[in-house]
Structure formats: C-alpha cells, structure tokens
Automatic annotation (TrEMBL):
It holds the Pfam family Lactamase_B_3. It comes from Paractinoplanes ferrugineus. Gene3D superfamilies: Ribonuclease Z/Hydroxyacylglutathione hydrolase-like. This is MBL fold metallo-hydrolase. InterPro entries: Metallo-B-lactamas, RibonucZ/Hydroxyglut_hydro, UPF0173_UPF0282_UlaG_hydrolase. It comes from the Bacteria. Residues 7-192 form the Metallo-beta-lactamase domain. Signal peptide: none annotated.
Length: 210
C-alpha cells in the first residue's frame, strides 16, 4: 500500500488498485488519475470536488464512489456509480477492505446544523490506514497502523488533535486538513503533536508518498 498525501485532505492509495479519499477543491485533480474508486467523508467542497469527480467518471465509466447516504443527492448526476455506506459497514473498494466509522461532522458552532461524516479504515493484507474526515472518531475495535490527524479547521482545536492521536495509538501519524494554516502556524502545531502525541508524527508536503 502506497499512500500519497495531496493538498489538504486528499489521499491516494495505490497497490491493490487506486483508491482516492476526499478529492476536494483544495486538492490537485491529478490525485484522481487512474482512480478505480473514491471515498467521500462528507459533502463540504474541500473534501468533494464534484467537477473533478465528474471528469474522472466520464473517463472511467467503471469508477465507483462510496459515501454516506446524505451525500448521494450531490452525486445524482453521475448515475449509478455511487453507493451509500453507513457507520459500521464494511465493503470492498478498489481491491481494499474498507470499514466506515462515525456518522457526524464535528460541531462547528451550535447555530450551524451538523452534517453526515464518515471516517474510513482502509486495509490490505499487510497494513491499514485511518482517515477521519472532519471528526475525531476513534476506531476503537481495531489497531491502526497509519493515522491521518486533522491539523487545523474551524471545528477543532489542537488539544483535540493531540488527544485523538493518543486515543487511537497508531503506529505512526501524519497531518491532514492542513492547508488553512500558514507555514509558521503549522510549525507550532506540528511541534506540539511531535512532543505530545505519543507516536511518530510527520507533516509531509503535498505529493509525498509514504
């Protein structure tokens, strides 16, 4: 399993197949090149670029997209390529075993209605990776090898990121949801996570494969 981190919250996983998670409007469209399947954590534009997914589906009619049922109306124009999944469900996507967790986006403000959000544990025969979307959902029923931890967002504070890493106890952790910070601000947050997260942590540049 080769995991490539693209800008903000987009991940591309190559190995059994090509699986892309959260190809949003902040991310490079090249993440979707040759994609067999796409996982969407939730409907916000920094996690779902509808035009980019539409272009990919036009090039590859066999593309499959998996998302919470609440997101499917956003994908209606793509026909039957989209499949609804919910918390606790396991399924196969692009040759990987995937399990969905959570169900709701983290609270931004009490006056802003919460929307659906899923975290995904993606596994092959050798390893796994967990990406939570816009939440700090902990996959409590499994050991996580690689965790992607949100670094900055309107819905979070850094202590939550630190406690999230401590709760999951992964083999290693990498920054996610990171394009809202300046480089200077990122260094401050990274330093705290390196010292306090309790595991090996890194903040990689877009395009890095781990």
């Amino acid at each position: 399993m080769r995991i490539t981190k693209f800008t903000h919250s987009c991940l591309r996983i190559d190995g059994a197949g090509v699986l892309v998670v959260d190809p949003g409007e902040f991310s490079e469209r090249s993440a979707l090149d040759g994609a067999d399947a796409v996982l969407i954590t939730h409907e916000h534009m920094d996690h779902l670029d509808l035009a980019a997914v539409a272009d990919t589906a036009a090039r590859n009619p066999a593309l499959r997209v998996f998302a919470h049922a609440d997101v499917l109306p956003e994908l209606a124009a793509f026909g039957d390529i989209a499949t609804a999944v919910g918390p606790g469900e396991s399924f196969e996507a692009a040759g990987y075993r995937v399990r969905a967790y959570g169900g709701q986006h983290a609270v931004i403000h009490p006056d802003i209605p919460r929307i659906a959000n899923l975290g995904y544990l993606i596994a092959d025969d050798d390893t796994n990776v967990f990406t939570p979307g816009d939440s700090f959902t902990v996959p409590e029923d499994t050991a996580v090898d690689t965790l992607f931890v949100p670094l900055n967002a309107p819905w979070m504070k850094l202590l939550e990121s630190i406690d999230f890493v401590r709760a999951v106890r992964p083999g290693r952790a990498f920054a996610l949801h990171d394009s809202l910070l300046t480089p200077t601000g990122a260094k401050v947050s990274d330093g705290h996570l390196e010292r306090l997260g309790g595991t090996k942590y890194a903040h990689v540049t877009p395009g890095t494969t781990i």
